[in-house]
Give the backbone structure.
Amino acid sequence: MNNEEKIICPLCNDAVDKLLYRFHTESEQVILEKIKLHNPAWANEDGICSRCLDYFNTEILLEQKMLPEIGPYFPVKSADDFIILPTPIRVNTNPKYSGKGVTICFIDSGFYLHPDLVQNKNRIKKIVDITNPKTTTKYFSQPHNASWHGTMTSVVGAGDGYLSNGLYKGIASDASLVLLKVMNEDGKITTENITKALQWVKSNHSKYDIRLVNMSLGDDATGLWANSEVDLLAEELIAKGITIVAAAGNDDKASIKPPANSPNVIAVGGWDDNNCLNGKENKLYHSSYGKTDDELYKPELIANAIWIAAPILPGTPAQEAAVALYELHQCSDPELQEKICTLCVKAGISYNETEKKDVTFIRQQIADRIQQCKYISPHYMHVDGTSFAAPIVTAVIAQLLEINPHLTPAQIRTILFSTAKRLPGLPAEQQGYGIIHPGKAIIKTLQNFFSMKQHTSPFINKRKKAIEFYIQNPCASHISLAGSFNHWAHDALLMEPTKNGLWKIEIPMLPKGTYQYKFFVDDKIWLEDIDNPYRQPDGLNGFNSLLMIEN
């Protein structure tokens, strides 16, 4: 595109591909007034670029008390011309709950005692190098190559935003942490060390009150979960009341690997909101997905997996470069020409003597370098991957456990799966039950509608020669069971309401075979059986649950 073809935004004067002109004046009156307040000469027909629109959306949210005070510390529009919103705002969770009283164990490559985890209050209960138990705490106060990934995941989920004056804090910013390093000196994460980490949790979960494990990593092996030591240990921990969340992976052509392939581990894929606060161009991230060797569809949930604010590892050349770039970015023109000589090497900027005198050229070099490195401040950058979607889900679960510490892993799954929302028009097998919805999950937890079922659904009662189905829905007026066993009749098998919104039906034992079924709620909504991990895409952006009768 040459200069003559570029479109200039009338507000920020940036060259953009297109401007937005069409506004729903009634529903967007507030934002139109905000734009005109700051730009009295602007009119609707002048248009606005999408980034400026996001900026004013953020301003409105601030006034609605949904964002921390901007002050001088809130780089809403960063130098790389992207708006990176704090994670709690992106996922629209309730800031009242912050994982207080909940301990999360992160099993990852390695860790650094990051200020966002220890400065205001040291929330790390224990940090262990599984590959070398003799490693002292002093090791973790220095940056290492292995430290990057685990530091990012733990801060994304549970950092308190110390280095950003509270801006880039995680959802579980008050949670306590146990950190287990599993990358060895050769830079490898082995099955043996992942297994040792899970065994450590098994031996120490009571001592440190661990209720949650986040695993933004995976084994290299594939196959049946019952043949994987990693999966077997994961299921054993879940049976002890510990919820495990695992990243699905970032290759949409790859298979799901342990522990994400395990039946009761919550596997998390990703979605992309296009870096828009109220993004309408939603799309799926290139997460791993599909059917495991055990015929289970994974992932079960998706969460934001791109445009996520994460820490730059302190004490590294990358962090020095970020500090130098932002110092140069904030300089006046005379200061810039003076400081560029001393900071150019750290900043990673090169120029000749002629270019040095061209301030516009140097500023473009700075902006290009910031964007290339994905920096958003001297201490943070934006990252992508299901490695960061997983701790978002983990942190939301910490909120639920703060509200009700007695929740079981099965109840947590039910809450999250029943409140998630699928992206319309996109394959269900890539998103499971859909995007995590923290606000609805919190409300459902506060309602405390939990019946202690004797069995999960469906339950094959051999003694009674019957099959029992259950669904929890306190708001329904009537629910029916329909499936291939009754030719999908909508109102033939009516379920009975019991206590706390639990519905139940018992049908006679069926002949040997595999059957598909769903629940039909209030004559308008089809729902799969959340208790049942076996399912099949229904061809309508959803799943049918599978009932398998062996004999």
About this structure: The chain has four domains: 3-67, 90-310+383-447, 317-378, 459-549.
